Amino acid sequence: MATLSSLPPELTREILEYLPIKSLLAFGSTSKGNHAFQSISFSKLHIGVLESRFSSTISLIEAGADLGLEHSIQKVLPQRMTPTKDMVIRQQNVTIQAVLMRYQLSLRILELALWELHEYTTIAIAQLRNLQHLSIKLDHPYTRAVDRSFWETSPGSTIWNNLFSRTGNTSDLGRLRSLNLERAGLTDYQLQRVLESNPRIINLRLQKCFNLTQEIFEFLARSSVGKGMQVLCFTKSGRDGIDNQILQYIGNLSSLRVLSLYRCLNINSDLVKTLNDNKWHISDLTLPHHVSDVLKNIEIDPEYA
Fold it and tell me: H or E element: which one contains 137?
């Protein structure tokens, strides 16, 4: 009778990757050998480290389609241990770094939900050499623990330099196919370097990345990574430099199948629709309209009021 130990290691790992996290951890606690298999079988992970059960639940609901409840770790920080914003952010980063360092060789899909990144967390991310999908969600406007204005800024920082190779710093990130950043403060140059280090990225989602300008669209229009881009979502950016001028560059992204400019309020929706109807022919298009522009046209049947 065949046993798990008699199977090829590659097949065993593939089987274990389907287990929910709780089951996988339980399996790893049964023996040293099984613990080793457990450590290399964490391929998908959503980590939410937030200040309340409500925030944690919303984070879990917003987890990407590639992840489910069985691949999620949610930690609610005790209020008595994190009375200030800075202490919350520090504890978030300490917790996430510990998990990433443990499973750095096996992770292929990673989603993080926290308030801000510290440098040592970006260093840990940069060492995930097999990572293919990275999502960093720093936008949690439903959180009541801090002022709402906190979620409308994305301060620039050198920490983003850790995600690409440069003099004196080697990043193992190079296999990304998908990148999702929310309220990330990286600049045009930093994002360009990340994309150049990961030329196979075909899915790029950027929300509230307020430091990005028209320059990133110019880069995509002339680069090979832009030519192969299939999904581009640039949303919730109301800065002056993000206006109709970027549309000339989007026209050069010949492989696009999904485009969202949701709530980029300086871009004319009618112009976007006209360009798509006549030139782009992108099958899945989200216009810059604010959600209130849609909601105000909804009529409610009085029978159901």
Answer: strand 133-137
What does the pLDDT profile of the chain (305 residues) look like in tens digits?
A: 556 666 776 676 666 666 666 676 666 677 777 766 666 667 888 899 998 888 887 877 776 545 555 677 888 888 777 789 999 999 999 999 998 988 888 899 999 999 999 999 999 999 999 999 999 999 999 888 889 999 999 999 999 999 987 544 556 789 999 999 999 999 999 999 999 999 999 999 999 999 999 999 999 999 999 999 999 999 998 788 899 999 999 999 999 999 999 999 999 999 999 999 999 999 999 999 854 444 444 444 444 33
The secondary structure of residue 262, as a DSSP letter, is: T
Rounded to 10 degrees, what is the CA torsion of 108, 113, 114, 117? 30
Give, in order, the Cα–Cα distances in Å from 11 to each of 8, 14, 16, 75. Answer: 5, 5, 9, 31
User: Residue 223: exposed, middle, or buried by beta-carbon count in 10 A (0-12, 13-18, 19+)?
Assistant: middle
Round to whole Å and give the CA distance between 220 and 253: 7
Structure-token pair, residue 199: 């030329």
CA dihedral (75, 141, 288, 157) positive or negative: negative
In this structure, the number of other CB atoms found within 10 A of the CB of residue 67 comes to 18
Does an H or E element contain 111, and which?
strand 109-113
DSSP-derived secondary structure for 160-190: GGGGS-BTTB-------SEEEEES----HHH
Phi, psi of 252 (to 5 degrees): -90, -5
DSSP codes, 11-58: HHHHHHTTS-HHHHHHHHTS-HHHHHHHHT---EEEEEEESSHHHHHH
Distance, CA of 134 to CA of 126 (rounded, Å): 11
- The pair of structure tokens assigned to 165 is 């190779």
